Amino acid sequence: MLSFIRSDLAQLIAYTPHPGGTIDSPGGKPAQIDRVDTNESPYDLPAALKEKLAWTYQQEIETNRYPDGSHASLKQAIAEYVNESAQLPDSPITASHISLGNGSDELIRSLLIATCLGGEGSVLVAHPTFSMYGILAQTLGIPVVEVGRNETNFEIDIPAAQAAVANTQNPPIRVVFVVHPNSPTANALTSAELDWIRSLPPNILVAIDEAYFEFSQTSVVSELLQHPNWVIMRTFSKAFRLAALRVGYAIAHPELTATLEKVRLPYNLPAFSQIAASLAIAHRQELLSTIPEILTERDRFLEQLQPLQKFRLWGSAANFIYLRPNLQDPSAIGPTLTRITEELKAQGTLIRHTGGGLRITLGTPEENHRTLSRLQEFNFGD
Fold it and tell me: By the 8 A CB rule, do 277 and 74 touch?
């Protein structure tokens, strides 16, 4: 309706955030709401760490002053964590290899601005995957090329991807986004996919999203220094339990991180978020200690759902699972997914209908028990 807005944005569908516990149901709001739809940790920060953050806010943060715009101390702490978690000898990753964003979303946007803006490039994604790569590209007027995945293991259709890279011109593909492990399908990159991204030419940026690294314990960071055209993105929103504070980071060649510093907004990370992330890294052993329980719950969840044969299941390398109704009629899958989502929501379980299936985050054992019971009781008949 407003003539000054770019015409192409009328066709864009914005990212839809999770309901956040707001449930409107004819039967009234359920007494218990299980938010297993956004791949967050089911556990809040321990009370002692919250108290320490509160004390820091009261005693050390001057709210009338801008935060540290260089993020220097946090970058150093992240570099040390990256080296330690990857068991890299001689600590090759330094603070100069790190760039921080207000969530990984800001980093994705900065990467697009640095590479493709002004008609200089398009991006390649494999569907289904994290929707923000495409959404953010479209908001910047950057073309998005999509290829499919093999539904046996959700490996990228590599021949299609190779053809897209070879044939896409005006503008050519400048960024390839891959996720390790992928969301919503929870699969880690296969050896064939890894070989493919290693083979991509140096004029294409390979953005590898490792948001779920702490759960998969699988990373390509040990190869990063051999590939100046790679960038690895990670987040504090998942295993580190800081989703409310929006801290993401990129690991890349210093020339690329220096470019990201040029295009990001100044003072993009609030002082409280920086302090919380530093505290989380300092207490990483405590915060990451719940991961074995979450992975055990994941395996138990899949084990108990498998015998029902109601759902088509895939393995998971993350803190969530992906499934679809096991129906003969493909046209019935979409409506059934919607019905499952709505019925579980009415009962108090929020799950995510995305990518042609259901993505379900592993919560606490009690939450998982309720989710599993409700899936088991779902009636496909009506």
Answer: yes
> Are the beta carbons of 347 and 374 closer than 8 angstroms?
yes
Share of the chain above pLDDT 70, in %: 96
Phi, psi for residue 270 in degrees, rounded to 5: -55, 155
Could you give the C-alpha distances from 10 to 3, 138, 141, 323, 351, in angstroms and in order?
A: 11, 11, 12, 32, 28
Average pLDDT of span 325-341: 92
Residue 23 — pLDDT band, cuts 50, 70, 90? low
Give the Å distances, CA to CA, from 251 to 12, 131, 318, 337: 30, 21, 20, 37
Confidence of residue 95 (pLDDT cuts 50, 70, 90): very high
Residue 247 contacts residue 236 (beta carbons within 8 Å): yes
* CA dihedral for 22, 268, 320, 206, sign (positive or negative): positive
Task: Kindly provide the b/e burial profile for residues 173-207, where b requires at least 16 CB atoms within 10 angstroms of the residue's own CB.
Answer: bbbbbbbbbbbbbbbbbeeebbebbeebeeebbbb
